[in-house]
Design a protein that fits this description.
The protein has 308 residues and is α/β, with parallel strands linked by helices. 50% of the residues lie in helices and 12% in strands. α1 packs antiparallel against α5, α2 packs across α5 and α3 packs across α10. The radius of gyration is 22 Å and the shape is globular.
Amino acid sequence: MTSKDIKSLASKITCVENDAPNANRLLDEAWKSGNHAYRVGITGPPGAGKSTLVNCLAEHFSDEDKQVAVISVDPSSPFTGGAILGDRIRMNTLSKRPNVYIRSMATRGSLGGLSMKTHDVCDILDGEGFDIILIETVGVGQIELDIARAADVTLTVLVPESGDDIQAMKAGIMEITNIFVVNKADRHGAEAMILNLRSLTKLRTSGNNDIWEQPVLRSIANKGEGVKEIVKVLDNYLNKLKSEEQWSILRQKRLEEKVKQLVIDKLTISFWDKGKIAFLKDSIYGNNMQKPSPFTIAEKLLSTNRKT
């Protein structure tokens, strides 16, 4: 990408992030021209080495002459709400490659570690012709279901020290993860961690041929070890998606969810006129002897047409 292309792309993403007047037009154009990028979500606890692994994967795909985009979802600044940009600083060398584009985004309070705007940014990048979009999320524990909705494949990065957490791992994280990677595999306890995970994945797929048996891979990302094996599994998963027509189904589901969200947003904006807001505040903060329940207030708001 030329500096002009980068500037134009950055401008489009900023418009989408800030809900600028032309954001919907840009997203509409992106939807019509995109839907071919392979979206890879990388999640896991803090300190697992996600950023280092993402850097290695981006380098590998870049060396294959693929157009690579990296979205690093950083913790929001408590003062400005913006991204801290730590990951983009660490990937400074990688960003100099002409076929790699890196963007840091703030979580903006999203509990799932993934800003809702990340979905839209992925669509913009897809429409720009990127082949691979790597989405790295904030490691906030087990509330990572957002990534499963945004990505075609979800890769969960763990470290040997995560062993105790695996025992308490909820079913949700097992269901959204397609590939497990035990990073920093040169540390004590790595092999035990790998065996533990493999037993859990086999237990989940036992007797169910429809479920992809989640590979459990090892890596030492800061040394570049295990990256080729991860790429091979990612390629196999992509081929599986396309051969079983899941590729189209994923995009249809993503389209359905987007439409539902847009409808909810529009209805919410149109619903809360000044009259309803005034009624809500009076019901809660007014001098009522007996405070109504939230269910009663909601029923009255929905059953009346209060206007200013």
